[in-house]
Amino acid sequence: MARLLLIEDDLTIRTPLIRALRERGHAVAAASTAMAGLRDALEDRPDLVVLDLGLPDLDGRELLRMLRAVSSVPVIVATARDDETEIVRVLDAGADDYVVKPFTAAQLDARVRAVLRRGPSGADGQVPALVVGGLRVDPRARQVTLDGVAVELTPREFDLLHHLAGRPGQVVTKRELLTEVWQIPYGGADKTVDVHLSWLRRKLGENAQQPRYLHTVRGVGVRLEAPAAQQ
């Protein structure tokens, strides 16, 4: 049973959604304002937050930034804004996933379960770090170091790098990345992957023209491998 916090000001959405999620086995608390949601997220430590963007006291994207500054709790953004640029901004601000209104409780429940599956697993919760050359990806602490120096990544950038680091030397298609990292099995734009790869390259101190770890395979996908001198 997952403990969910629903931050949604619309009572006609909030009430039936709480009921439906509880029927699916989740423990659900709710807040109707951004500041109440922030307080509840910090005090109650839910397993996942479902965040509406159109809140009465503060834009949900600003609340997401505030939450990310103090917590790594998974966040699914529920929004009526279906513009790709806005969705990319939300993901870059730290959302783990998004769902566009109107949506069903079944759709949201599927995304909740998918996001929670990305967390640490196993009887003792210990997940080994992934090492590729001088790159170290620690899924339990959600930390990355490059040649011993910490690399600050957004949650989505971390998920992208973690997925690639688990398949060193393999070409991973953009379709696989959209399915496994973004949880978008039936659609989505390749541009979303390209933008995040560009940001990730910059943080790793490289670019598409002079790659060290991230190598584009034109028309197919991307391959992560250690520089030749470190293999």
TrEMBL record:
Residues in OmpR/PhoB-type domain copies: 127-226
Protein name: Response regulator ArlR
DNA-binding region: 127-226
Gene3D superfamilies: 3.40.50.2300, 6.10.250.690, Winged helix-like DNA-binding domain superfamily/Winged helix DNA-binding domain (1.10.10.10)
InterPro entries from the UniProt entry: CheY-like_superfamily, OmpR/PhoB-type_DNA-bd, Sig_transdc_resp-reg_receiver, WalR-like, WH-like_DNA-bd_sf
Keywords annotated in UniProt: DNA-binding, Phosphoprotein, Transcription, Transcription regulation
Listed CDD domains: trans_reg_C
All residue ranges annotated as the Response regulatory domain in the record: 3-116
PTM-bearing positions, type 4-aspartylphosphate: 52
Keyword Transcription regulation: yes
